[in-house]
Amino acid sequence: MQIRYAVKVSSVHEYNKQKLCEKAELKQCPIHPEGGCGIRRHGFYLRLIPIEFKIPCWYCRAAHTVISLLPDFLASRLPGTLNDVEEVVLEAKKHPTLVSAAEAIRPDIGLQGALRWLHRRLKYVDNILNVAAGILSPVGFKDLRRLQEIFNVDFILPHLREKLNHHLYKMPHILGLISPQLEPVGG
Question: Domain check: are 38 and 90 in the same one?
Fold first, then answer.
């Protein structure tokens, strides 16, 4: 299970420099907010992209579940950051076809793999914008650049994770997480 770790950094380098994995705290179990489940710190797991870094974990004895705190800047269930995903989608929009976009963005792998890789990111972002439009307002949620301007941010996906904190359990993967009952961890 992944829950939001509200950190005030936007890169893995800053996250590592400030040793935020070691500073992470989980005050209550997202499965048993009333307590009594025996939740304990469970170390960390490593992510390797864009560079090696640690994700803090806890273990709920009662639910036999590992709970990890995913920093706001990271994509959920995809390697890399939300900013990376957003940049890929914006780059893909510059191309006349998905094939030309896939060839330009991922020349390191075969075309079919590049198309799947790109399509997955495009689909996630499209789903996120559709759900966000239903929750926030009738603002034009189809254009990432327009949203960056409306909210005056360089990257909209991390901003939406923060803005939609109480709806993350409804959001598609990469942005969405699990627990609707917990406030974000961190600060």
Answer: no
Element (H, E) at 14: helix 12-17
pTM: 0.80
Measured between its terminal Cα atoms, the distance across the chain in Å is 20
User: CA-to-CA distance for 160 and 151, rounded, in angstroms?
Assistant: 10
* Rounded Cα–Cα distance for residues 15 and 53 (Å): 8
Which domain, by its residues, includes 56? 2-74+176-186
**Pair (100, 134) in one structural domain:** yes
SS (H, E, C) 119-169: HHHHHHHHHHHHHHHHHHCCCCCCCHHHHHHHHCCCCHHHHHHHHCHHHHH
Q: Is residue 38 part of a domain?
A: yes
pLDDT tens over the chain, length 187 residues: 888 898 988 888 999 999 999 999 998 898 888 888 989 999 999 988 878 889 999 999 998 989 999 898 888 878 888 999 999 999 999 999 999 999 999 999 999 999 999 999 998 888 888 877 777 766 556 788 888 888 899 998 888 888 877 777 666 555 555 544 444 455 4
Q: Are residues 150 and 180 in the same domain?
A: no
